[in-house]
TrEMBL record, chain A:
Domain Thiamine pyrophosphate enzyme TPP-binding: 66-214
Coiled coil: none
GO molecular function: oxidoreductase activity, acting on the aldehyde or oxo group of donors, iron-sulfur protein as acceptor; thiamine pyrophosphate binding
InterPro entries in UniProt: 2-oxoacid:Fd_oxidoreductase (IPR051457), THDP-binding (IPR029061), TPP_enzyme_TPP-bd (IPR011766)
Domain of life, source organism: Bacteria
One GO term (biological process): small molecule metabolic process
Short name of one Pfam family: TPP_enzyme_C
Keyword terms, alphabetized: Oxidoreductase
Protein name: 2-oxoglutarate ferredoxin oxidoreductase subunit beta
UniProtKB/TrEMBL annotation, chain B:
SUPFAM superfamilies, per the entry: 4Fe-4S ferredoxins, Nucleotide-binding domain
Key words, A-Z: Iron, Iron-sulfur, Metal-binding
Protein name: Glutamate synthase
Residue intervals passing through the bilayer: none
Species lineage: Bacteria, Pseudomonadati, Pseudomonadota, Alphaproteobacteria, Hyphomicrobiales
One family name in Pfam for this protein: Fer4_20
Amino acid sequence: MSYLAKPKFHHPALPENTLGYTRRDYEGAISTLCAGCGHDSITAAIVEACFELSIAPHRVAKISGIGCSSKTPTYFLGNSHGFNSVHGRMPSVLTGASLANRDLIYLGVSGDGDSASIGLGQFAHALRRGVNMVYIVENNGVYGLTKGQFSATADDGSKSKQGVVNIDKPIDLTALALQLGASYVARSFSGDKAQLVSLIKGAIEHEGAALVDVISPCVAFNNHVGSTKSYDYVREHNIAVNRLDVIVGRTPITVDYEPGKLELVQQHDGSWLRLRKLNAEYSVHDRRAAIDFLLEHEAKSEIVTGLLYVASDKDELHADLNTTDTPLNALSQKELCPGMARLEEINASLG
Amino acid sequence: MKLTDISAPDYFHKVVDCQWACPAHTPVPEYIRLIAQGRYTDAYMINWRSNVFPGILGRTCDRPCEPACRRGRVEEAPVAICRLKRVAADFKDDIRDRLPRPTAHTNGKRVALVGAGPASLTVARDLAPLGYDCTVFDGNPKAGGMIRSQIPKFRLPDSVIDEECGYILDLGVTFHSGKRIDSLKALLSEGYDAVFIGSGAPRARDLDIPGRKEAAGSVHIGLDWLASVSFGHVTSTGRRVVVIGGGNTAMDCGRSARRLGGEEVSVVVREGFDEMPAASWEKEALLNEGITISAGLAPKAFINEGGRLTGLLVEPVTTVTENGRSTFVPTGEPPRQIDCDEVVIAIGQQNAFPWIERDIGIDFDKWDMPVVAETTFASTHPKVFFGGDAARGPKNIISAVAHGHDAALSIHRLLSGEDIGERLLPHVQIESEKLGIHEWAYDSEVTLDHRFPVPSRDNKTALKDIRTEVELGYDPALALAEADRCLNCDVETVFSGPSCIECDSCVDICPMDCITFTENGEEQELRLRLRVPALNPLQDLYVADGLKTGRVMVKDEDLCLHCGLCAERCPTGAWSMQKYFIDMTHAGDTCPTRSR
C-alpha cells in the first residue's frame, strides 16, 4: 500500500474521451492493498475500460461484498455510486438495485471467497436469472485477508505459501457460469491488461449477465513456486483462445483479415465485438463445446483465457419479468397509484 | 532500441535538468533539499564549490536552470532556483572555517590573471589552495569585474561582492588593483608559468545615426555609463531619459536612470516585446517601476535644437526572421519623435584585445576573436588560457565561472607536466534512498503550490536611493515553501528487470503515465507506442530488459515527477529510488583515471 497521495498532476498530453475526461478522472482513492496486488491491475483495467467507452461516471453503480477484491471499488470510479455490501451478498444487492433502476450500469465486484464460498448460491442465482450486470471475480485462490488459506477456487495439488498441498477440487467459475446460463462468459489474467480491458468493455456493452473471471495473483500469499495462481505459472500455462480487440459500437467495420482469423460478433443489442481468433476451432457461440474445452484444458493444467461464450439471444431479467422501462425512482405518484378507475378495470378484466 | 546504460555519468545527469543546464553543473536539488532542512551553510558550501559566487548569482544569475526545470513542464512556473540560492547565502553562518586555508608554501609556479571578474577569480579560487602563486590584475580599484561595474547596486549590493570576492582574495591571491594590462607581451616577459585572460568583453557598440555628434554630451554608452554610475561618477540624469536596446543591460540602464532623476524613462527597442533579449523577470521589474517599453521602433536620428538634445526620431518596424537572422522592416507608418533630455545606448557589447600583440603566437579568427580550444580553454600559445566573455564573447557570470573551472584544470595539468586534454571523469555517486517499507530519505510528496514571489521593497522606498536593494529575498518560511516545489530530480528511478514480476503496479500508479512494458523497437516507433507517446526528443527513454516475458521496460524521463510511487508500489524492489550525485572535476581532484 502507499502512504503518499498520488499527485494530481497528469501528463499534459493525456488523451480525453468524448466526454472530455481523461483516464485519471475515472480513478478513485489510492489503493490500500499490498504492493503488487493483481487486484490493483484489475482496478486499472476497469478505469481504462470506462474511460475508453466514455461512460459518464454517474451512470455506474459499483457493488461489492467482503474481501480484498471487494475493497477495490473504492479505488476506481470515485464519482460513481457504490455499495459495499455483506459477505457473499453482492449479487442480491445488485439484483435489487437493478430492478429499482434499470438505467444504470451495474458493476459487481467480488472475489473467489465472496463468490465461490460464502456467496456461491447468490452467484448461481444472479447468473441464472440473467441480471444485466458485469460480474467481475478477482480470483486469487486464497483468503488474503486472513493470511492465505486456500479458497474454493484453489487448484487441486496447488501448494500454499506454508507448503501445504490442496486436496480439494477447485470450483471453475467460468464453467459454472456457462452451465448456469450466463450470456457472456470470459476469463482473463490481471497480468495481461490489453486482454482484460477489452473483455471488460465487451461485458459492459453486453446486455445480460456477464461474468469476467480474472486470475489475480496474491503477491503476499499466492505468488510462490508451487502455486497455480502466481504470475509465472499463469503466464506459462495461459491458453488464450482469442483476443477481443475492439468494440466497434453499432456499425460494423469491414476489415480485411486472413479468413478464419477474424470474427465480427454481433450482440443482440446491436453492438459488435471484433474477435481475433487464436484457436481456429474455438467457437464463442457453443456453450456445450466451451464447457468441454475448459474441462479438457483444465485436465492438462492449462488456463483458458479470452471470450469463452457470448449468447446470441437476449436473456435478461427485466425482459423476463416484463418490468416497466422507467426506473422506479422516475415513476410519479400517478403511475404508481393509477386510482380507483384503473383498479376497477383490472378487477373487471379478472372477471 | 539500445538498452540504457545508467552507469554512464551523463545519463542521470541529463535527468537532473537544472544541473545539466547549468554551465557549472551546480547540484541544484541537493542544495534545495538542504535549504528545506534549514541547513543553509551546507547549501551555501555546495554552491560555493560549484559556482563560487552563490550570493552574487542568487541575485543576478541568467538562470539557464529555470527554463530547464521539470516543474515548468507540469506547471506554469519553474522552481525559483536562483532566489533559493540567495537564501543559502542570506541565512548561512560564518563559513570561514570551511574555506580552504591559504597554503603555507607555494609550489613555486606563478600564474597571472588578467581582469578580476568571475572567470579569473574562479581560476584563482581553484589554483591558490593548490599552492599556485596567483596574481590578479584589474584596471578598477576593486575586484569583481563586470559584476561590480555593470550590475546596479539596487540589484546587487557592494557588500555581497566584497564578501564573495574577499573569500577568494583571502586565499593568498595577490590583487593588483588599478593596474590595467596594456601589453600581453610585457606580461609574458615577466616569467609567469601561465597566464589566464578573463578580461571580459569591454567594448560597447555605439549607434552612428544623424545627430549623434551634436548630441554627444547627452548621449551615453550604456556599459560605460553603468560603470560611472556604479563608481559614483554619475549621480543624476535629465528628467526624460530614453534607453535604446532590449537586453538586460538596457533594463539596468532604464532602472538606474529612474533612480537618478529620470521621471519619464522609456526603453526603445527594435524587436517586438516578446522577442526582446532581456529576461522576462528583468522586463517585469522594469515595468513595475513605471518605465515604459516601446517595442518595434528603430532609432533614426538624434534631434538637437539650439545645441541641446531634444528628442529621438524613431521609425516603426516589424521583425522578419529568416534562417534565424532577424531583419527590421519599416511598417510604412511615419517616423515620430520621442522627446527626451538624455539617451543611453545599450545595444550590445563586443570583445576587444588591443593590448594583445598579434605576433606572440596567439591566433585570432576572422571575427578577431582568439582561437580557444573547446574544453581546455587553451589558446594557441602554450602558456595562455582564456575564459569568460574574453573567450567566447558576451555571455553571463555562470558561464564565466564554468570556463574558469575548466581553464584552472588545464593550467594545473600543464604545470604538473600532464596532458591538458586528458580530464578525469566527474565523480558520481548513486545510492538508495529507502529507509523503511514506506519511508524515503527525501521528501517525495509532490506539492501543488505555484511559485512564490520574492518579497520586494515598494517603489517609493526602492526608487529613492540607487543603492537600496529592491528584492528582500525569501524569508525562511517562504524559502521552505518554495523549496518544497522542487521535484528532487536527482533522486532517480532505477529499474532492475530480473527482479520484476510484471505485475503492472508501477504502470498503474504512475501519475504521469511514464512507464510502459512493451516489445522493443526502433526508438522513433517505440516513442509513439508508449502509454502516452513520448514526443519530446530532448528527453531520453530509459529502456531496460531482463524481464521473463522478453518485453522491455520503457520509461519516458520527460515528465517523471520523481514521486517514488513506482518504487513504493513495487512488490519486489525492482524499482528503487536512488540519489544521484555528480561532482564535476575541478583542478586538484583526484580519482581513478578514466578519460572523459
